[in-house]
Specification:
- There is one protein chain.
- The chain is an alpha+beta fold.
- Helices cover 40% and strands 20% of the residues.
- The protein contains 14 helices and 13 strands.
- α1 (19-39) packs across α13 (318-333).
- The longest helix has 21 residues, at 19-39.
- The chain is globular.
- The two termini are 16 Å apart.
Length: 343
């Protein structure tokens, strides 16, 4: 009897994507494929484009036992990623990650903030485009302009942080002209930045991995606001990139703050109905109060980046991370575990 088949469902990498981002996307898929093979699966790759019929035909022909959903954009559009779980659900294929509804909500930062507020989870105040355009009282704190639907620091730069309403209105027009889509302004929390990865399984159905702090070192430009902007995330030769370092040791020595981050992350897992794996991004103000920035239901899993490093600090090997995520896909679909997972 042949080994079960896992399909890795990928998005597309568009022209102009920074080399390091394109490489991370490829590495993410390759490492997950290698882990699936190590567990005992055969592996095939299907790319999801606007030609949904083509992807459907490929999936129907392959008849996979499970799909590992890595779609984080479709032809450059991050707001369309819910099409992946929709298609997989329609074809009755067990798949990793969250369902279409949860994917839609967590992809939309404004919907995310509304859920956080409704659930009593602290998040920074915000202004919609309409609220920015119609004017109002002067800003009482700096705000940062962000894309509503696009992630991975899309469109973020030091000029995204503004201190008065006139500049905010002007900057909004600039962002919409230079990029696209809908934008909003979020109160800028001047403090420390953290993220915490979560993995299905363990106590109460979720394992909280060690939180990581993004430390702004002396290499980071002193005249710029401390944010992980597009340059800091993707352009390796910039001082912004060199000046932002992931660190697990500092928070390990602060049990009270670590406990607060863990409690909020668990609340996010439950409030959004997250499954498989996720990451919660925080800013912590100077009083030690955490504010949730984003809930990412489909973060990169690469072994030497954030999620993989957090798992390693928890003593969980990368193959076991993939095993837990795939097992959760079967659990949610009410399918029995194959022998390669039940062993």
């Amino acid at each position: 009897m042949s080994a079960p088949l896992a399909v890795i469902l990928e998005g597309t990498v568009e022209a102009g994507t920074p080399a390091v981002e394109a490489a991370e996307i490829r590495t993410n898929s390759n490492e997950i494929g290698a882990a699936l093979k190590a567990i005992g699966y055969r592996v095939a790759i299907v790319t999801l484009t606007f030609d949904l019929a083509k992807a459907r035909r490929q999936l129907e022909k392959l008849k996979p036992d499970v799909a590992f959903n890595l779609v984080d954009s479709i032809e450059g559009k991050g707001d369309l990623i819910a099409m992946a779980p929709m298609l997989l659900s329609h074809l009755n294929i067990p798949y990793t990650g969250t369902n279409a509804a949860v994917t839609t909500v967590t992809c939309d930062k404004l919907l995310t903030k509304q859920v956080l507020k409704a659930q009593g989870i602290r998040t920074a105040p915000w202004l919609t485009e309409a609220q920015i355009e119609t004017g109002g009282n002067e800003l009482t704190c700096p705000y940062i302009l962000k894309s509503v639907m696009e992630h991975a620091s899309f469109g973020l730069s030091s000029n995204s942080v503004v201190k008065n309403r006139a500049t905010l209105k002007a900057r909004l027009k600039e962002k919409k002209r230079e990029f696209w889509g809908e934008w909003f302004a979020e109160g800028f929390v001047d403090g420390r930045e953290f993220n915490l990865a979560l993995l299905a399984g363990g106590k109460d159905g979720v394992t909280l991995l060690p939180p990581a702090e993004i430390v702004f070192t002396s290499d980071y430009p002193k005249h710029k606001p401390k944010i992980v902007d597009y340059a800091a995330k993707w352009y390796t030769e910039t001082p912004e990139y060199k000046g932002t370092v992931r660190n697990f040791d500092r928070i390990a020595k602060e049990p009270a703050l670590r406990g607060r981050l863990q409690k909020v992350a668990r609340n996010c897992w439950n409030a959004f109905g997250l499954t498989g794996y996720a990451r919660v991004d925080f800013r912590v103000d100077k009083k030690g109060v955490p504010y949730v920035l984003e809930v990412n239901s489909n973060p990169f899993l690469t072994a030497n980046e954030g999620f993989g490093m957090a798992a390693r600090h928890a003593g969980i090997g990368f193959n076991d991370v993939v095993r837990a995520i795939v097992a959760d896909a079967y659990r949610r679909s009410a399918r029995p575990l194959p022998k390669v997972l039940a062993a």
